[in-house]
């Protein structure tokens, strides 16, 4: 049997579509799981080589189910990411008309992306969340709900028809997906990388978040995501999920992570991996001393001092 990739199922999800864009997916057995947690747990137990799950969308931000699993569950590491443009279809059983729809369903992350369309076209319809958009289509097939927001490609799989297509409140909406595996040495820098970490403050104090972000800013590292998540230790206790441009093998990133490790109560490294948009690292130069050449020159000077060659 080929090695398997777990993904948020059932069949017909946007997650499956995004996963199949990876060349290596053609050589793996793709196994749907009922939730993000169960897909990631399959990796932790060795049942799957890796899991492919949504982590962020351009309308609502981070996917909390994924972030919380990566923050609090047994350590895993991100190896790849994929960006997928998202547009929804309203899937119904044959013969259903818009006037007959009383209940609609989809994954919770879909609701903010179709909220205005619902208000204008189905203002009286009751929304119910499903484990995934494809699972919502399955529930419509079974007669549990009247309609589901899902990819148009899921219609045939569940014996439904697309009553409306091209539904989206925001133009150019995208969802980011990540391939997650067990911890190992990151792949070599590609020149267009991203590093993900989770940071916990030692205590709550004025300027605490500034201190954390200053480790990146002082080295000219641009942040691509900053999201707080509750730690479960009480109101006001948060950790911070950070995506930063660059690779852990880059000197500036290694220095930033070293500085953060000194001042954080706890850190979790989630991986350094190629950016899906293949854009080069956006080094910002707020002041002198943050160019690659200056970093190298400073490190060489310290090395010479250590060797007595100053």
How would you describe this protein?
It is built from 9 helices and 15 strands. By secondary structure, the protein is an alpha/beta fold. The strands form 3 sheets. Strands 1, 2, 3, 4, 5 and 11 form a 6-stranded mixed beta sheet that branches. A 5-stranded mixed beta sheet has the order 8-7-9-6-10. Strands 13-14-12-15 form a 4-stranded antiparallel beta sheet, sandwiched between helices. Helix 4 (111-121) links the parallel strand 7 and strand 8. Helix 7 (208-217) packs antiparallel against helix 8. It is elongated.
Topology, please?
Layout: E1 4-8, H1 14-19, E2 29-33, H2 36-44, E3 50-57, E4 61-62, H3 64-72, E5 77-85, E6 88-92, E7 103-106, H4 111-121, E8 126-129, H5 133-141, E9 147-150, H6 154-157, E10 161-167, E11 174-181, E12 193-201, H7 208-217, E13 223-230, E14 238-245, H8 251-263, E15 264-274, H9 292-306
Parallel strand pairs: 1-2, 1-3, 7-8, 7-9
Antiparallel strand pairs: 3-4, 3-11, 5-11, 6-9, 6-10, 12-14, 12-15, 13-14
Helix pairs in contact: 7-8
Give a quick summary of the entry.
With 310 residues, this protein is α/β, with parallel strands linked by helices. Helix content is 28%, strand content 31%.
